[in-house]
Structure formats: structure tokens, C-alpha cells
Amino acid sequence: MRRVEDLRRILSVIDGRGYKAYKGIQGSYEFPAFTLYVDHVQGDPFASPSKVRVRVSQVVAGLPDSLFHDPVRCLALEDFLARKVHATIRRLVRDRRGTGKSGLIAIDAGGQEVLERTAVVVTPQWVEMRLSVGFPAAGRRVLGDQAEKMLCHELPQIVDSSVVWENQPQQEGEGFVACVENQEHIRRQLDALGLIAFVADGSILPRESGASDCPLPPDRAIPFRAPDALRITMELANSIPGASGPVNFLSGMGIPQGVTLIVGGGYHGKSTLLRALERGVYPHISGDGREYVVTCPDAVKIRAEDGRRVEQVDISPFIDELPYGRPTSAFCSDDASGSTSQAANIIEAIEVGARVLLLDEDTSATNFMVRDARMQALVRKEHEPITPFLDRVREFYGQLGISTVLVMGGCGDYFDVADTVIMMRDYLPYEVTTKAKAVAQSYPTKRRAEAASPIAQITARVPLQESFDPSRGRRAVKINAKSKDLILFGREPIALNFVEQLVDLSQTRAIGYAIHLAAKRFMDGHLTLHEVLVALEQFLNCHGLDTLDPFHSDERHPGALARPRRYEIAAAINRLRTLRMRQRKSLK
């Protein structure tokens, strides 16, 4: 292994040469406090930044064992350190010193959610930062002195300020880890308490703006307060500050399993609550306002999605007997309508394990949600292939154990099928189930249930490996996340605009690689999509996110990746227009 003096010498020698001379610094270098690995050097200053890793021995870093002795605490600590590295870079580094990406130093630090990432890895022996670096150039000529300043002066300062524990705000770090552990501790209690979600008193649900996921400032926000009928107290893993000292419990609203309606007038917070529940499948940073909004991890947001592709999905529980005898038990479409796409989205989510469905009438197909008595009288059932969600939602819970949370502001017919009704007024919740049931009795709907037969099963599908081609041009594997909402998988775009629980570009990037890994390793023509995704999850749990890199090795920067859920991976697979499936057996 070379020393830091060797790096300085090489940079001095290549100063002023063409940019490709930077390739000469690839390799590893021993610094006094860390080891630098230059894994990849960009081809020119306008290309994607170079990839470097900085590994610090625990003898130097001194991270307390108590902060990473189990997976939840380790994930939280890694996230905390990535954020500290990011903050230190912003404070110390002038990120433009020449052409293109010259001078850039960056780390994938994330937003309001705490996700498993490849940005920082903590082990009992060392801690490693994975950075993107733009080596400086004037035009396409090496600026060796500026590169030396970045690598030999700024990097040591970044390490000292953000990784060495004795230089950290230790109380803040311990609190960050404790907060994430508390959220996961609450999540583990939900099932036993018969709940699908918990929203703590004092939570700030509204966001700063439509363009910002940060919380609304306290002077403009109304803190959440649970209605007495739904109030529950949750045990915490770690104490938090209370009015009269530290406490090991938290009071708030528990949302029961079953069918829950969120009702109320426009602009009173219905969709804001649902949005918080959508994001509550992930832990959040302390101070987000939603850090103690905790949702079942198998909750999936459902919406209509005009134009999406559907492949071999049995949507007959909702849509049957299409005109001209078109079958729906193995429905295919290159351009699904609002109702057929929403039906497919529900069946696909349940197929891979969803236990909670989250819906908002504003993003649903009206004819899919309900047919009122007047419409039933005018358009007879024999001429209407759609069985509305209203007539299936109770079956989903009673027969399949799948709960639903539905924002509904315009159709009282759902009062008849709801177990719990929450009214939002001025961003505060009120439990109004009894009142809603009384209204339903006083104003009977007179509509007829239209489900011809009960839901008996969800048909499993087997993905066919040959329909996944990641190649482009001369590259056997070329997968790019162009944005949070778009993957280019080989030559095929996968549009994820309406997959609303994706929160990070690094998740999208990981999904593209996850599809390739799943196809190559697990799609054998026999395993169902659900079985493939379970096998993928187990593989990642065992081997880590680094293995998503198609060119993975133990000594290689894996790129900026964040862990996606199986539901978002499945959503991307289902939207790949080359996808081919065959149906196998039925799932009970």
C-alpha cells in the first residue's frame, strides 16, 4: 500500500497533464488517521464524479459499541454519520475549483427519512465513508495542487470533524440513534395491539411547502392531538424528555386494523394525515415532526394510473365480463384505464404481501370506488363490468386480513362498511364512528352490493427471466436512475411517477440494480414474484446493499444506494413494458 507522500508526488507529476492522467492515482494510500481508496476515476471533468472510500480504524474513530451492536442502532448511527459528513463538507469544502465537477466532494446523506444506505458502513473494526469526488481540472488539464488540497488537507479535516467520536456532538448522536430505535420499537408493537399505525401527540404533520418535505414551522403548525376514543400509550425502548422529566412511553392515536375512513372538509388535513401514514413505513429523523408517526411496514399506497402497462393480472374481483368477451382473469394492457390500473395496483400489492392499503379519493378512479343507487338504476349491473371497491373492502379484511385506510370527503356510502371513522377538522382528528353509523341509518343509501361472488384467492404470477434485458449498446448491464421517478433499464424506461412511497433517488437507483440481481439470481421460471422478492430480501439481509452493484467486489465503491421495500421493487417490475409473466397457482 502506498503512503500519502506517494499521492502527493503523483499529483505533482501529473499537474497540467490531460485529465486521464488522474487514472494514475487509483489504488490505496495510508494516511496517519485513515486509509484512502481511490476506486474509480472519472474520464473527464464533466463525467460522473470519481468514487473514493475513506476507512477509519475504530481505534481512531472510537465509536461506542452500544451505538451499533444491533441492526437498528447500526443503521441509525450510519445515517447520523453520513449527515455529519455532509454537513462538514458543506462547511469546509469550496465545491467549484475549475471545469465541470472540479472540486466536488459529496456523500449520499438522505432527506427526512432514515434509510439503510451504502454511504457509511460501521463495523467493530472500522468505519468507512463512500464519497463522490470531482478531481479538479482547468479545461481538461489536471490541477494537481488543487487535488492535493482536496485529498491531503480537506479529507483529513472531514474525517476528524465528522467521524472521530470525541469530536462529535455525542448527545445529539445518541439521541438520534435512540429516536430511530424508539420508532422501530413502536412498529414491532402494532400487530400485538391490533393496530396498523400510531400517530403521537405533538406530531407536526403539515410540510413547509409542496416543494419541501421539511416540517411547517412551529408558529404556523397545529400539533397533532389524539381523540380520546383512539388514544393509546406506547412503550419506548429509550426515554425521551417529558413535561416532568424523562419518560419511557408516548401517548397518541392508534389506528385499528380493519376499514378506517378519514373524512372532513377540504383543506382540513385529511390527505396530510394520509401522507404522513404513507411515509410512516420509514423511520424519520428527530425534528421532522413525523418521527413518531409509525405505520405497519407492509402498508402500500394505491391510486389510479392511466396508461400504465399491466401483465397477466387477475383483476376479476373488481372487473369482469368486459365487452366482446375480453378476459380479466389474466388481464394484459399496454394502456390501462384509471379503473383497471387501480384494480391491478391493488392485486399486485396484495400479491407481494401488502397488509394495509392506503387510498385517497382524490387520486382514485371515481367509477372504481363507488356506484351510487341512481347510477345503478340507470346503468344496470349486467352492463357494468366494474365491482366497486366499496363492495370488496370489507372482504379484504374479513377474508384476507388486509386493512384499508381511505380518505373520503364526497361519498357517505362508505360509512356502512367502516370500522372506524376519523374526522379531520382544523388539522385535528375527531373519532366520529358512532355518529357516522347513525347518519348511515338515518339516510340509507338504497344502493345494492354488486359483488357477484366472494374473493377466494389471489393468483400468483411467475416472472420470466428472458423479459429482463439490462443491456444497452456495448454494455451488457447499463442501468441508470435518471430521477427519483425514472429508471432506464437497458433500453427500457420504467416510469415511477405514481409510486408514491419512493422517497429517495438512491432508492430508485437501488431498485434498478435489484431488478437485475433478482432476474439473474432468483427468476428460474418457477418462483412466483412474491417468492423472488422474499429471496432477494433475505439475500440483501445476509450480504448487504453493496451486493446490488452489478460489478460488486469486496474492495469497490458500490455507489449511492438506499434500501427500497419489496413493494416499490415490485411496482417497478410491474411497470417494465418488456415484462412477461405466466400465472402459476393460487395463493390463499
Element layout with pairings:
Blueprint: E1 2-3, H1 4-14, E2 27-30, E3 35-40, E4 50-57, H2 58-61, H3 71-92, E5 105-106, E6 120-122, E7 126-133, E8 137-138, E9 141-142, H4 144-162, H5 170-189, E10 195-200, E11 207-209, E12 212-215, E13 231-242, E14 245-256, E15 259-263, H6 270-279, E16 293-295, E17 299-302, E18 310-313, E19 331-333, H7 338-351, E20 356-360, H8 366-369, H9 373-378, H10 393-400, E21 403-407, E22 420-425, E23 428-431, H11 433-442, E24 458-463, E25 479-483, E26 486-489, E27 492-495, H12 505-521, H13 529-543, H14 566-574, E28 581-587
Parallel strand pairs: 1-2, 15-21, 15-22, 17-20, 20-21
Antiparallel strand pairs: 2-3, 3-4, 4-7, 5-7, 6-7, 8-9, 10-14, 10-16, 11-12, 13-14, 18-19, 22-23, 24-28, 25-26, 26-27
